[in-house]
Amino acid sequence: MVIELRQLTVLAEVCRSGSYSAAADHLGYTQPAISYHMRALERAVGVPLTVKAGRGVRLTPAGHRLAERARGVLAGLRDVENEFEALAARTRGRVRMSSVQSVCVAVLPAALARLGASRIEVEVELGQTASHDAYRLLNAGETDLAIVADDEPGEAAEPAETPLRRVPLLVDRRHVVLPRGHALAGRRSVRLADLARERWILERDRERLLRRCAEAGFEPRVVTTTDDQATTLGLVGDGVGIALMDGLGLLPRPHPRVEPRPLDDWPRRHVCALLRPEAARVPAVAALLEALRAVAVEQSGGAIEAATA
């Protein structure tokens, strides 16, 4: 049996896109070329890999199994290419990074500034990604380094097709943001039940908050809905209502007319880096990860805490 790397690339893309035509567009091939490589791969392995499904195709169980192995092979090859490109140059590398938004805003800029003085010049290809998507991107070899946040105990325990290295970065606390002079601003911390009579400014993604408010015995009175943090801070500062924000979200934009206080009865959010073990040996990835860890330690205290390994 002889399986070519190009055939694995085609299979992985067909699996991702769901059709030969979409795979051809993404890879820059013609559709007949995609069909040719898929037939050749089926002959090589001796079993059908796809069946027709409407206008697209659906992978057979054997096709899915081989696609998983193909993604691992392709991701490993990219790691080898990155590692030896860096070894040859030693002065430059590219890192594909996926991260939750708060780390992009509060931690990454300072980390990249630290790298300016290092021997390795790192080009970061950044995508803001929800934590649950990070595992898919790592498994597919579409990102080198992912920053995830575990908002609930065990929430990030997603299945991984390849072993992943997990590096703790920091611990974030949920805060209630109060207008300056609010009666609760004199406390060092606040409990959710203390906020039962307040007017609320909420994000659209509010299911977790509503569930916790119900557990605390009340339903929040919502006066404004917005996902923009700058708008939220301005509304709180003008006395429109109160809001909840993560500590990381408060770091880059201190507001003179609001007073954040940590919530005692809200689980801490553990922010970690995830990467494949092979990626950790790539100098550019290792340098960026070390810079992120250093900045997390520097910024600890107050709104966030340094993580312990």
Word description of this protein:
It is a single chain. The protein has 309 residues and is of the alpha/beta class. The chain folds into three domains: 5-69, Arc Repressor Mutant, subunit A (Orthogonal Bundle); 90-166 and 269-300, Periplasmic binding protein-like II (D-Maltodextrin-Binding Protein, domain 2, 3-Layer(aba) Sandwich); 174-262, 3-Layer(aba) Sandwich (D-Maltodextrin-Binding Protein, domain 2). Helix content is 41%, strand content 23%. It has eleven helices and 13 strands. The chain has helices at residues 5-17, 20-27, 31-45, 61-89, 101-106, 108-115, 131-139, 207-215, 229-237, 247-250, 283-299; strands at 50-53, 56-59, 92-99, 121-128, 145-150, 165-172, 174-179, 199-202, 221-225, 243-246, 258-262, 269-275, 304-306. Strands 4-3-5-12-6-13 form a six-stranded mixed β-sheet, with helices on both faces. Strands 10-7-11 form a three-stranded antiparallel β-sheet. The longest helix has 29 residues, at 61-89. Mean pLDDT is 86; it is low at 153-157.
Largest sheet: 6 strands, mixed
Question: How many E-type strands?
Answer: 13
Name of the CATH first level of the largest domain: Alpha Beta
Q: How many H/I helices?
A: 11
Structural class: alpha/beta
Gyration radius, in Å:
24 Å
Blueprint (SSEs and pairs):
Layout: H1 5-17, H2 20-27, H3 31-45, E1 50-53, E2 56-59, H4 61-89, E3 92-99, H5 101-106, H6 108-115, E4 121-128, H7 131-139, E5 145-150, E6 165-172, E7 174-179, E8 199-202, H8 207-215, E9 221-225, H9 229-237, E10 243-246, H10 247-250, E11 258-262, E12 269-275, H11 283-299, E13 304-306
Parallel strand pairs: 3-4, 3-5, 8-9
Antiparallel strand pairs: 1-2, 5-12, 6-12, 6-13, 7-10, 7-11
